[in-house]
């Protein structure tokens, strides 16, 4: 086997403090490590997403915008597994996060929905 899982997903944000608040305080991902790299004027925040996976949240001065949404070449979206989609949607909306209507995956019959991070990165909740 080539791989036994995903180690991390890297995200570049435009406003570090806003994105840190979103991923840590709203989505609840625990901080593994936070590093400021003075030579790059950049932060790297490692977040635990469970199952030994992580998000690496980066800040860089003046990052370019995403070319289009969501069909730009490259990563389309990031999906998080949830046990209770309705409770997760209610939590997000209570915290002022807009969430799309819940849909059903025609291939798996599982329910899912999308919302966006502070930079408009499409994030998915997928009920397991």
Automatic annotation (TrEMBL):
Keywords: Metal-binding. GO terms for molecular function: metal ion binding. Gene3D superfamilies: 2,3-Dihydroxybiphenyl 1,2-Dioxygenase, domain 1. This is VOC family protein. InterPro entries: Fosfomycin_Res_Enzymes (IPR051332), Glyas_Bleomycin-R_OHBP_Dase (IPR029068), Glyas_Fos-R_dOase_dom (IPR004360), VOC_core (IPR037523), YwkD-like_dom (IPR037478). Residues 5-128 form the VOC domain. The keyword Metal-binding applies. It comes from the Bacteria. CDD domains: VOC_Bs_YwkD_like (cd08352).
């Amino acid at each position: 086997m080539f791989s036994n899982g995903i180690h991390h997903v890297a995200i570049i944000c435009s406003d570090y403090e806003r994105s840190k608040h979103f991923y840590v305080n709203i989505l609840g991902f625990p901080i593994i490590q936070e590093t400021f790299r003075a030579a790059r004027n950049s932060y790297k925040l490692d977040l635990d997403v469970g199952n030994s996976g992580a998000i690496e949240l980066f800040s860089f001065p003046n990052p370019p915008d995403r070319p289009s949404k969501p069909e730009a070449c490259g990563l389309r979206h990031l999906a998080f597994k949830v046990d209770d989609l309705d409770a997760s949607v209610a939590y997000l909306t209570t915290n002022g996060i807009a969430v799309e209507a819940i849909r059903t995956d025609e291939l798996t019959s599982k329910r899912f929905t999308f919302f966006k991070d502070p930079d408009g990165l499409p994030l998915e909740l997928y009920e397991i």
